[in-house]
Hints:
Elements: H1 8-15, H2 19-46, H3 51-68, E1 76-77, H4 83-114, H5 126-149, H6 161-169, H7 177-196, H8 202-216, H9 224-228, H10 245-277, H11 283-299, E2 306-307, H12 309-317, H13 324-344, H14 349-363, H15 366-375, H16 377-392, H17 395-417, E3 419-422, H18 426-429, H19 434-437, E4 441-447, H20 452-465, E5 471-478, H21 484-499, E6 503-507, H22 511-519, E7 528-530, H23 533-544
Parallel strand pairs: 4-5, 5-6, 6-7
Antiparallel strand pairs: 1-2, 3-4
Amino acid sequence: MPTRLVPKTVSVLKEGYNLSRLRADAIAGLTVAIVALPLSMAIAIASGVSPDRGLYAAIIGGFFVSLFGGSRHQIGGPAGAFIVLVAASVERHGVDGLMLAVIISGLIMIAAGYLRLGAYIRFIPYPVTVGFTAGIAIIIFASQLSAILGLNLPEKEPGPFADKIAYLARFVGTTNYAALAIAVGTIALIIALRKIRPGWPGMLIAVAVATLAATLMNLPVETIGSQFGGLPRGLQTPAVPTLSLEKIISVLPDAFAFALLGSIESLLSAVVADGMTGRRHRSNMELIGQGIANIASGLFGGICVTGTIARTATNVRAGATSPFSGMLHAVFLLVFMLVAAPLARFIPLAALSGVLAVVAWSMVEKPAIRALFRSSRGDAVILTVTLLLVVFRDLTEGIVAGFALGAVLFIDRMGRNVAVSPYDDYNAKSEHPIVNTDPDTIVYRISGAFFFGAASTVGSVLDRIADRSKNFVLDLSDVSYIDSSAANVLESTVRRARARHVRVILTGVAPPVKAILTAHHIDEDHVTYGRDLDAAAALIAADADRPGENH
């Protein structure tokens, strides 16, 4: 098996794993588990499922992400980015359909890993990732408004952002101020602890304080117990969802969306971990590990799993040395579930909504947005379009449109970097100055990647100059790449020059470039190839010594 498809766990064991590393990983795993406990339940509730399904994903999925993944420090589990997709999938297909979509998404990710597609995820432009993350954050916050305000809604709130805001605005008068106080207090305490005691598990402390306050003061607020009846004390038995061809086809779009977003999120998280540790992850193995984790999570009733940036960063800062910290984080979560399940029923939903409000705010990469708006108008447009489409249309549409805009912007920038210009400094370097002193010879050079984005511009320049002399020398030594569109432009230029009895000499042509030109009939029967400009000058000088030679 190629090294890049070997889990990092295997690499760590080959290096030698000892008791001191286990101790460090156990401390890091416990730290991350304390962070993941309230977050996993909050994400599940916001996704339209019961909180235990978030814990199943964190325990089962998180364990397998670390066991089979390609990163030493990645922490897997439910992520806020999936809330919109999971909620929509539950509404369309029910929980059983969601589980099937999660399992299929895992198969897709495994296939992507074995097809070595992991490296291509990095081609998604940075403004797109910043834009869709900010868009998801806005949607998450909007989805929590009713719980934060404790609104008394007569029916389920609509999914689309604009419709949701308009609907909630109609019922602002039903605000439950006890729930609002719990949510605001939770947010304030988390923010305060981050500033005063950044090493403390602020989210867990805030939820515990909110639960204690709501219970002791007997506040009239919705809790996990009143809404879901509490948490089970343990994992459920693995089960395969109902299978039928019709059901598989119906959930396939959701599965692809889960796989795409999960791949992007997990590999971005792995890159963040690499930046913090100086290590390098194996992107294709990471996709395979994420795929296995999603299959396992779906079988145990958990929601989507991916690499989580915040929890992974916490893992690194807590001193993790290997994937065993991620596996221990899952074990600790299972212990918490077994021991503290009866207490979870008292947690106010408004407190968990406050947690997600903080998560949403943290997801918005404020410094990156400011930098993109200051540095490039094009990148700012990509970010804005992606964000607006994610919020008002659809996550997939936002990513596709942002990627397309990024590609067009890249093509435009690369096209502007291709230059065709007179080679004015050749005479000073050449042993054959006739190239620059002979009025019947013109020397031009093309610099840059010559492709379709620049073909039209370069072609118009070449057409203006190719018929003004007896000898047209075109230096391609600075052309590292040429595509069929550019080759077609050169073919047209050569054909036009030959019709006017102009000799065309191409110099410095790299073998890959020459192969493409030859395929477009720009061969020795139509042009002269020279090793370099000196060789071209020698050819022209030799022809000049033979008066009457037909060029």
